[in-house]
Amino acid sequence: MNEELGDAIKQALESGDASAAVVLTESGDEIVPRIVTGPDDPALESAYAGDRRYPMASFAILLLPGLEGRLAVPVRECDRRMLTELHKHNQVDTSRLVLLGVPCSQEVADACGCDHPFTPADIAIAGSLAHPAEPSPPPESLAEDPSERLAFWLDSFSRCIKCMGCRNICPMCYCKECALDDPNLVGQGSGPPDTPIFHLIRAIDMADRCVDCGMCEAICPSEIPLRQLYRMARLVVEEAFGYQPGLDPDQVSPIKMLGGPEDLGGMEGGSRAD
Amino acid sequence: MEEILAGTGEEQGREASSEEDVKILAFLCNWCSYAGADLAGVSRLQYPPNVLDIRVMCTGTISPYFVLKAFQEGIDGVLIAGCHIGDCHYDKGNYATAKRFRVIKDLLVGMGIDPRRIRLEWVSAAEGAKFQDVITSFTEQVRAAGKSPLARDRAALAKASGREGVDR
Lengths: 274, 168
What we know:
The complex is a heterodimer. Chain A is α/β, with parallel strands linked by helices.
């Protein structure tokens, strides 16, 4: 399968379909991304299409502005959803990308609890497709008693060491100026982060962007169930506005557009005491 | 934010609200709700003194971060009041508010914050009596919910670390 990916990239570069490509290569135990501009590049021999994941959509954001022609990127289904969503947020132009689908194995899909693991046949290079897996949210986050839920989240957030890993790995966190770096909102410098605002700022921003790739949770050294937090935010947008990030390239985020009175998510009369 | 929050109670010449009473932050739109509050004032309508108001040009300028920051600093309830849908001075600013509010409220409620602590109301410049009614009922609502658990959490954290607040 690794060779098939290398060949697909080689073909895209040879035919002039793409003028550059990003390829993950195996170097010892590490997976290292490389930029390839010619079909004879030796990096293509060691192209990696295994189970380890990498935020490929970030390369599109980084490389497209300085590139003439198109960029070939190997993507999983989650990467493809990110790129679709980033296109709608004016961060990448998907017409300038050549997407080479890398299907996830069943092990990856199960480990991710991924409910969209397929890679559509039109862009997939060879490989078997995985079945959807059930997400497994922590049961405390679904507790009936609000104080139990709050205690669970505050306890989870209190483990945060402010490594910024969740923000830095997330391709959907593309802002040049980040609210988490604003001293008026979040205390800066050493010490534990201000909770819960530190985590909720990101949750709010993820509400109409998160594609549930789960890399934030995978990278978090304190094992904070970030994915469930963002899933909660996403579900609000889905229930209120029927919007799911990354799926329909033509549907615009309800938060980004003003729309009409019918798009207000049931808030046209203001809220009432619950 | 701290300066605003520090300015509660006696020094503003209001009826002294005790330490135990709830603090409410109200974002009022310049064109409708702030004028509505003004009307309530000149009409000598009585309402509880627990509310600190912040005038904004449009409720559409209120970032969800502001609501989070208010709760972070220990506020017990947040009220957002603006022009009725269709009456916005900037045409559709309150459309953005309505949508953002839905997201922030449902997220906070999903996390375990009491839904009584956050409210969106449309109050026009002619609705002084409605302003009085909204403030009165919201204050009662927040009193019923009690002091914010986040405020308690922060106080406990500061005490445990021997500091007044988190390291800045």
